[in-house]
Amino acid sequence: MFKYYLGLALLSLKRNIVLTTLMIAAIGVGIGASMTVFTVLRAMSSDPIPEKSSELFVPQIDNWTPEDLNESPSLAGGLLDQLSYRDAMALMRAHRGVRQTAMYGVSFTVMPTIPGARPFTATGRAVYADFFPMFDVPFRSGSAWTAAADAGRANVVVVSAKLADKLFAGGRAVGRTIDLDRREYRIVGVLKPWDPQPRFYDVSDGSFSEPEDIFLPFSTAIDRQMAFYGDNNCDAEPAPGWMGHLNSECVWTQFWVELPTAATARSYRRYLYNYAAEQRSTGRFHWAPKVGLQNVRQWLVSERVVPDEMRVSTLVAFGFLLVCLVNSIGLMLAKFSSRAGELGVRRALGASKTDIFTQCLVETAVIGALGGIVGLGLTVVGLGVERTILSEDAARLAHLNSGMAFMTFGLAVFATVCSGLYPTWRASRVQPAWQLKAQ
Amino acid sequence: MLKMTRLSKIYRTEVVETYALRDFSIHVREGEFVAVTGPSGSGKTTFLTIAGLLEEFSAGRYDLDGVDVRGLDDNRRSRLRNEKIGFIFQAFNLIPDLNVADNIEIPLRYRGLARAERRRRIDEALERVGLSARARHYPAELSGGQQQRVAIARALAGSPRLLLADEPTGNLDTQMARGVMQLLEELHSDGATIVMVTHDPELAIRAQREVHIVDGQVVDLVAQPRLVVPAQLQV
Questions:
Q1: Which of A57, A180, A195, B90 has its CA 20 to 30 A from that of B118?
Q2: Distance, CA of A430 to CA of A147 (rounded, Å)
Q3: By the 8 A CB rule, do A295 and A56 touch?
Q4: Strands A214-217, A156-159: parallel, antiparallel or unpaired by DSSP?
């Protein structure tokens, strides 16, 4: 019977093309508007590492006076969102997590190996070897460096697949050297394409930026006095020179620790508190210990990775979809009312209320499907417009993948069928006797 | 075949109760051709819609082909209607978007018959009403008489036990009406049980008997001269 109902639905839609077009347009516009905004919101608010997001934590230590803290431009949960080098090193030395890494962003001038090619700038990140297994970073070839390389400040790097292919034209990269700022580093690993969104491990310089192309040991970067490429906040002017920078209370280091159980997380929080209390007892801090420990999801919320305006826009867009659906309910009521005579005849010829309900519901679903196709097209157009409006890194998220396309279509059908339930129910309650008497 | 006993139909509003049928009793036997007559508003069509299971009744009893229909749910009533009853309407009630064959197919679809069986029944019904060549035509392409023949074919296709006709010639000119009436008589002579609502005395007289309704009650049962003898009743 479904095929029969489908045929009847198409016939019915053709019968009143203006009404049909209005309904499809109402649903398509509503779906297009809401899914355009929702696609970006969903990409922004997605869990970048779902299988481990509850086990990865950012520790926070209040190393500024309460007055300075209140004036800081970058807080997360009322605490500074980065650590000072001193505190980061103290946490690394304590080694209380299963894995942990301090990190900061750097930048290089890369000398190409292909003759005639021009030098170019590439972003990098100084990390500990734990970074790779901790964040499940996938390797195409080679592997991360060892803990010994961390300790020995080795001249080793892991590079992105994109950079390896650019430098070596798709040839083998592991074991070869790369010239960064006139120093040679040995490539020990090449990553597979890896693009966690949001780029949760460092949101201080664009939450949706692409991951870096070059990773090198943190100790090597410090030893080379590599300047940070990212956010730096100071409560006071640091002492001059590199050591002055390292020993200052400026916060510019990100830190992540892997704590697989709730018990280890509790234990780590206690450790942080004790650490801050110890700093107070030594005279470095003059205020009550204040520390934080947030997992990935809490961290993204604290850092307001998804702007409030985006949430409001999404609510408004879905409100608009609701208005469109209410309009389509009215149009469907009009459509089914105009066919009460036909439905009465069908009832007289043996159709049950269920038959009529199913027939009208299939027709509603067809309208939803056509609205979904229109909505899909409008979503693609809408995302194109959004890419011109959003910041460069957020614009990367304004794309419709197959999952979202399926969701767009599914939402159109689902929303239309839901909104069509009342008109459909009304249609199935047609009193055939009255209809036939009226004729 | 059709037996109503002390049946009443009351339409209620907040302020008034109106009896459309009151203590209405009728018994139509298998193979009979009965004309139901009466003035406008007498309850003829209400009788027909209750007989066709399109409307509930308020009190009394109604047995259709031996089945007490009171209390049946909608699915059961719909199935009974589909299997036992064929409707012929004054306004033909063909669906304009469907061609002749598709219109006739409607009750067969709801019965869940296989495609080949539907095809066979459509062809037979069209042949019976002399419209085999018009299967692919749309209602708007047919004359009024032809449309009513299609409606009759649709009623016949399901091989119903009872044909209910509501002013079947009411929208036709004299010549077309004569043709349709002749077709009904032929169906009756082939054994069909027919109940025809009409206000036309000339048509009523062609039925086996006439039931006259006034104010929702049967006031007179008039035996008609037998014009047509159903085949199975002929000895």
A1: B90
A2: 77
A3: yes
A4: antiparallel
- Does ipTM come in above 0.85? yes
What one-character-per-residue DSSP string does B63-74 give?
Answer: EETTEE-TT--H
What DSSP line would sit under A271-290, residue for residue?
Answer: HHHHHHHHHHHTTS--S---
Q: Which of A338, A343, A349 to mutate to test the interface with B (most CBs of B within 10 A)?
A: A349
pLDDT one digit per residue (tens) for chain A, 439 residues: 889 999 999 988 888 889 899 999 999 999 999 999 898 888 888 888 999 999 999 999 988 877 777 776 677 777 888 999 999 999 999 999 999 999 999 999 998 877 778 899 999 999 999 999 999 999 999 999 999 999 999 999 999 999 999 888 878 999 999 999 989 999 999 999 998 988 889 987 777 788 899 999 999 999 999 988 888 888 888 888 999 999 999 999 999 999 999 999 999 999 999 999 999 999 888 888 889 999 999 999 888 888 788 888 889 989 999 999 999 999 999 988 888 888 999 999 999 999 999 999 999 999 999 999 999 999 999 999 988 887 777 787 788 889 989 999 999 999 999 999 999 999 998 887 776 665 5
Shortest CA distance to B1 belongs to which of B60, B71, B85?
A: B85
Give the global pTM: 0.74
Residues of B at the A interface (Cβ-Cβ below 8 Å)? 45-46, 49, 52, 54-55, 74-75, 78-79, 81-83, 87, 89-91, 93, 95, 97-98, 106-107, 109-112, 154, 158, 166
Contact (CB<8Å) B97/A12: yes
Alpha-carbon distance A376 to A400, whole Å?
A: 9
Sequence-separated (6 or more) residues with CB below 8 Å from residue A306: A41, A44, A45, A300
- Measured in whole angstroms, the distance separating CA A77 from the mean position of its chain's CA atoms is 20
Q: Of B46, B48, B150, which is closest to residue B98 (Cα–Cα)?
A: B150
**Of residues B45, B95, B97, nearest to A345 (C-beta):** B95
Strand arrangement of the beta sheet that strand B162-166 belongs to: B85-88, B162-166, B193-197, B33-37, B209-214, B217-223
Q: CA B50, CA B57: separation in Å to the nearest integer?
A: 7
A223-229 contacts, C-beta under 8 A, 24 or more apart: A223/A153, A224/A183, A226/A106, A226/A126, A227/A106, A227/A107, A228/A104, A228/A105, A228/A106, A228/A252, A229/A104, A229/A105, A229/A106, A229/A107, A229/A123, A229/A124, A229/A205
Best to test chain B binding among A13, A363, A435, A436 (most B CBs inside 10 Å): A436
The closest of B188, B144, B162 to B85, measured between CA atoms, is: B162
Question: Cβ of A350 and B110 within 8 Å?
Answer: yes
**Residues of chain A contacting residue B106, judged by C-beta atoms under 8 Å apart:** 345-346, 349-350
Q: Contact, A108 vs A124, CB < 8 A?
A: yes
